[in-house]
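Design job #97: recover the sequence.
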């Protein structure tokens, strides 16, 4: 999966189209990611010992195909290429050729 936890992404499709956010969680087996501040659902929570109860807002997963990685250098949504470095392969921005992985 090309997108990792902590990456900044932009939403390409759906009601949240155009919104940017940081990836909170990645589900590689399901092909989904959870993005901070995007695709928020309201859930009714029953009170328990640790929680008062009420309506809570919870970010829901998005399909990976509906988000695109934002390059940290050029701040543009970009496709990802892979380049072999000395230790392992690294993700590279296709528009500015900047290596995105911190080695």
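Job complete. Output follows.
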């Amino acid at each position: 999966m090309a997108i990792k936890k902590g990456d900044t992404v932009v939403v390409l499709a759906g009601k949240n189209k155009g919104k940017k956010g940081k990836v909170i969680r990645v589900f590689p087996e399901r092909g989904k990611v959870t993005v901070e501040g995007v695709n928020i659902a309201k859930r009714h929570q029953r009170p328990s010992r640790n929680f008062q109860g009420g309506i809570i807002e919870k970010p829901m997963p998005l399909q990976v195909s509906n988000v695109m990685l934002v390059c940290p250098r050029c701040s543009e949504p970009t496709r990802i290429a892979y380049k072999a470095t000395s230790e392992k392969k690294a993700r590279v921005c296709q528009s500015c050729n900047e290596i995105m992985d911190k080695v």
